[in-house]
Amino acid sequence: MKDSVAAILVAAGRGERAGRSIEGPKQYRSIGGRAVLAHTLAAFRSHPRIDDIVIVIHADDTELCERALGPNIAGAFLVTGGAERQISVRCGLEFLATARPTPRIVLIHDAVRPFIDHETIDRVIVAAEDFGGAIPAMPIADTIKRASSDATIAETVPRRGLFGAQTPQGFHFEGIRDAHEKAARSGRSDFTDDASIAEWAGTTVMLVEGAVGNVKLTTRQDIAAADRTLKERQAMIDVRTGNGYDVHRLIAGAQVTLCGVTIPHDQTLDGHSDADVCLHALTDALLATCGAGDIGDHFPPSDPQWRGAASKIFVERAVAIVREKGGRIMNADISLICEAPKIAPHREAMRAAVAEMTGLSLDRVSVKATTNEALGFLGRREGIAAIATASVVFGETA
Ligand SMILES: Nc1ccn([C@@H]2O[C@H](COP(=O)(O)OP(=O)(O)OP(=O)(O)O)[C@@H](O)[C@H]2O)c(=O)n1
Ligand SMILES: C[C@](O)(CO)[C@H](O)COP(=O)(O)O
Questions:
Q1: How many helices (H) and strands (E) does the chain have?
Q2: 350 Cα to the center of ligand 1, angstroms
Q3: Which residue intervals make up region (2-C-methyl-D-erythritol 4-phosphate cytidylyltransferase) (predicted)?
Q4: Of 42, 330, 360, nearest to 33 (Cα)?
Q5: Could you tell me if 334 and 276 are in contact, meaning their C-beta atoms sit under 8 angstroms apart?
Q6: Which residue has the least CA distance to atom 11 on ligand 2?
Q7: For residue range 162-206, what is the model confidence (pLDDT) as tens digits?
Q8: CB 241 within 8 A of CB 277
Q9: 86 membership: H or E segment, kind and range
Q10: Which of 98, 134, 165, 271 is deepest in the core (most CB within 10 A)?
Q11: Which ligand is nearest to the CA of 26?
Q12: Pocket of ligand 2 from Cβ distances under 6 Å
């Protein structure tokens, strides 16, 4: 079994160096059309190893945070932070200490590093599991000078072996919680990152490769540059469309399952799983958007475990695959071709079921039906066919 992983996003700072804005402190400023914090949250939320997310905010910022995150706030825990970053992190750790069970690994991340990528998170988790502590870091490329108070150079610091520390910084939960508690008891509040607290407490902390893009938005210029980067990326957004087709034979029976909804009928559909043609077509459409094969590759009809299975499982797996590949599903459209049963009375229930399994809002799901004008095998009521189309956006930042 894999270790449980929680993430603490510290977002309680005042952003003095970035200056004040009508939008509030820098974590609530909009970059590429979304709040900095919303980007950061999305990066962690879409990572398959993160079980729980705690967002540490300033006592005055609840409304700002709710506005910045909208419905995406659901499922994240909001905790009030303190006057220093170190105190805010401790508030997050103490909150997690009340969770049952407590996480095995905790990742502590600056909310103002919105460009964090999944590969960096992976490296930190793996090294933290193995060594107790790990941080992403990049070798320093500039020559380092120590300045005197009169702005002359006092010293050139040899840069060999010097790294710039990034976040998320990952630790065994109990170890970093004890280290923070010890630091607080010793009256130390001058640590600028969590690794330095762990080092001080005697924990080994590994360096793993960080990412050039994983910058901390500190100044007004950083925020403007982040906004430009995202807008450039958005201009190159990769929208993909996938389609799927399926047909199943009608045999004697009492009901059919379409889009996961049971509809009384004088026939039933025969075939793979519960023979829900709509969800089979939709699964194929979703997989097609990222070249991930088709339903038969993932759920072979020859495998007895799928006999009679609810096809919702297939759609949910396809949704997970799309998300793992960095896609955001934009809409799903299903057309049924059948003479009977009548779809109109069940259409809203079918749309709601598809919306739920894809995570789409209702206005992004369409279900419609047409007859085959009594022509051919569909017209003779020998089967029901469905065509599905899905659109997915790739290449966005988190
Ligand atoms: N009391 C604090 C101070 C900082 N942070 C968080 O720690 C991260 C890194 O800190 P920094 O970039 O220094 O943010 P601020 O403290 O807001 O900036 P400044 O020092 O310019 O005021 C940010 O996500 C910030 O919100 C926090 O949670 N609680
Ligand atoms: C944690 C950190 O981002 C690692 O580089 C950095 O130390 C935060 O410093 P700040 O002064 O709170 O911005």
A1: 12, 19
A2: 46
A3: 1-239
A4: 42
A5: no
A6: 192
A7: 999 999 999 999 999 999 999 999 999 899 999 999 999 999 999
A8: no
A9: helix 85-97
A10: 134
A11: 1
A12: 85, 110, 165-167, 192-193, 216
Q: Which residues pair with 257 in a beta bridge?
A: 262
Residue 90: CB within 6 Å of ligand 1? no
314-343 pLDDT tens trace: 999 999 999 998 899 999 999 999 999 999
Count Cβ atoms below 10 Å from residue 235 Cβ, excluding itself. Answer: 7
- Ligand nearest to the Cα of 82, by number: 1
Question: What's the 230 CA to ligand 2 centre distance in angstroms?
Answer: 23
Number of the ligand 2 atom closest to the C-alpha atom of 216: 3
Set out the domains of the chain in order of their start, with CATH numbers.
Answer: 5-235 (3.90.550.10), 238-394 (3.30.1330.50)
Q: Counting atoms of ligand 1 from 1, which one is nearest the CA of 82?
A: 1
Q: Please, which residues have CB within 8 angstroms of residue 217's CB and are 6 or more apart in sequence? A: 18, 26, 31, 36, 112, 113, 114, 223, 226
Residue 65 C-alpha to ligand 1 middle, in angstroms? 15
Are 335 and 387 in contact by the 8 Å Cβ rule? The answer is yes
Q: What pTM was computed for the model?
A: 0.68
